[in-house]
Write a structure and sequence with these properties.
alpha/beta; His_PPase_superfam; His_Pase_superF_clade-1; Phosphohistidine phosphatase SixA; globular; SixA
Amino acid sequence: MKLWVLRHGEAEQRANTDPQRRLTDHGREQVLRSAARLLGQPLQAIIASPYVRAQQTAALVHDTLGFAQPVITVPWLTPESDVRQVISELERLGLEHVLLVSHQPLVGALVGMLEHGHLQQPVPMTTASLAALEGEWPLAGLMTMCALTRPD
């Protein structure tokens, strides 16, 4: 399995609610730089948080790649989601090449859990950071981080 984990681009500081925060112009530029790293990758699905900034990030990646399938929106990719639930959902999907678009602290905790097998070493992921992991299954401690790129 190859899993890419993308943190949304830079978002505006304030909105009526956190889920409504939108990408800034700089955030859109960041996402486009990260999306370029996915060109030619055999993605089967783009799965995103329902928050506006993650939806905008996923849409930019989708359009940049000319991805044929629609973005899948799930409630288990919000900032405070449970890492173990995310891993369980990935196992249930049974896909080989997946991009997740989400938020901190979830993305750092998820990448750390998949690589190290525990939550004590979250990976620092700035806005629009893209982590690439490989492994037989999306299980705690059984995936290897192949790359971590930051757009800035």
